[in-house]
Write a structure and sequence with these properties.
Blueprint lengths: L1 H13 L18 E6 L5 H12 L6 E5 L10 H10 L4 E5 L7 H11 L4 E7 L16 E4 L5 H7 L10 H5 L19 H7 L12 H14 L13 H14 L6 H8 L3 H13 L3 E4 L14 E4 L2 H7 L6 H13 L5 E2 L6 E3 L3 E6 L14 E5 L9 E2 L8
Parallel strand pairs: 1-4, 1-5, 2-3, 3-4, 10-11, 11-12
Antiparallel strand pairs: 6-7, 8-9, 9-10
């Protein structure tokens, strides 16, 4: 166990606590069992190390372990944690739990047997707690960490530092949200950069190699992480990548299952399930008609990439502008709100508000008869009658 404690100390010493993801302040750190899931590259490990550093505990009191460490190929998590607890352990931060066989059962045992031990763990976005054998859902608080919002991107790059705003603030008739921005703020100055480079925090380290790294990340998710999905045969990883390329070449689009099956070499009876797998991996987003029950797998009305950066990663030329706008909107708004496909307009949010997304010349013609309908316009800073698209990147 000593080698694990030494690795933890080294990692904690190197981590900076100057900039934190929005989720850091929303987590109830006092809870005995906390789970944080999200796609690779969104900053889950950094979140754990920052909290551990701020606790200022001795290595024997608080430690960080990655469960894909070679140590755990020959050592039991429960037995190692038991030793840690007996030597004064109070906080156990576990990373990459989905890479440890039967991880949920082991964590349940630790939770039940050591009531004075606080456990925080992270795992891939593909984790479905409700299906895990350990039945952790009644014992824990679960959080999901998305990529950077536009607001966070500005802050992490030392450009501007603003507080998040709510959807209610954005839609308010008095437009008080405008008061939070200084007169010299130019919201579009870095907007295109965000669409291409801003969603994953590692762009701050290496903007030049970002596209290559993002493509490698997608491969790792499909070929490595998705092996943990129940019902997914890892031998079909190549077909999954083909499907993702088909989606990327056409999004946003209303899927024709037969055509997708032909282009991706996937049996048409499996296409919907595979689309669902890609959504679980936070690589795409599926939009369903309002009022549709998702208890069983349904064919979506529209398919989007998970975020605009992926559009650049998969495109051989500049991505379609309309695609980028809608992908940006759904990626930012879906973090805190439910989105469905409406009969009129582009998006129905929380089953109440309808949004039509377009360029600066977009009119309200398509949603004139819709109650609570709003036009969201790109390429404008502070429009009078419309809502600026960039502003929806300040929701978290």
């Amino acid at each position: 166990m000593e080698q694990l404690l030494e690795k933890s100390v080294a990692l904690v010493q190197r981590i900076s606590t100057e900039k934190k993801r929005y989720l850091y302040n929303e987590i109830n750190w006092n809870n005995r069992l906390i789970g944080i899931k999200g796609a690779r590259g969104t900053g889950k490990t950094t979140l754990l190390l920052q909290k551990l550093k701020e606790l200022k505990l001795l290595p024997t009191q608080g430690t960080y372990w990655s469960l894909d460490d070679f140590y755990f190929t020959t050592h039991s998590l429960v037995e190692t944690a038991e030793t840690f607890f007996k030597k004064g352990g109070q906080y156990l931060f576990l990373d990459e739990v989905h890479k440890y066989e039967n991880w949920s059962i082991h964590i349940k045992n630790l939770y039940d047997f050591y009531p004075d031990l606080k456990i925080v763990f992270t795992g891939s976005s593909i984790i479905d707690i409700s299906r895990e054998e350990g039945d952790l859902s009644r014992r824990m608080l679960m959080y999901t960490l998305p990529g950077l919002s536009y607001r966070e991107y500005l802050a992490f790059n030392d450009l501007y530092n603003f507080e998040p705003i709510t959807l209610e603030d954005i839609l308010s008739k008095d437009r008080k949200w405008a008061e939070m921005f200084p007169a010299d703020f130019r919201p579009l100055e870095y907007f295109e950069d965000y669409l291409q480079y801003g969603y994953y925090p590692f762009s701050i380290e290496d903007k030049q190699g970002y596209a290559t790294r993002l493509q490698q990340l997608v491969r790792l998710i499909v070929e490595y992480d998705m092996a943990e999905l129940k019902g997914f045969d890892v031998r079909n990883a190549k077909k999954m990548l083909q499907l993702l390329n088909v989606v990327a070449a056409n999004v946003p689009f209303q899927p024709n299952i037969t055509n997708i099956a032909k282009k991706s070499d996937i049996h048409r009876n499996s296409v919907v399930a595979y689309l669902h797998f890609l959504e679980q991996a936070q690589l795409i987003k599926l939009l369903y008609a309002s009022g549709i029950s998702l208890a069983t797998l349904q064919k979506p009305e529209k398919v989007y990439l998970d975020n605009p950066n992926l559009a650049y990663a998969f495109s051989t030329s500049s991505p379609n502008v309309g695609n980028l706008r809608e992908t940006y909107f759904i990626s930012q708004v879906s973090v805190r709100h439910k989105i469905a496909y409406p009969k009129q307009g582009d998006f129905l949010v929380d089953n109440t508000f309808t949004f039509e997304v377009g360029g600066k010349d977009k009119t309200s013609k398509q949603i004139d008869s819709v109650k609570n309908g709003f036009v969201v316009a790109d390429d404008v800073e502070f429009p009078i009658t419309k809502l600026p698209l960039w502003l929806f990147g300040f929701l978290y």
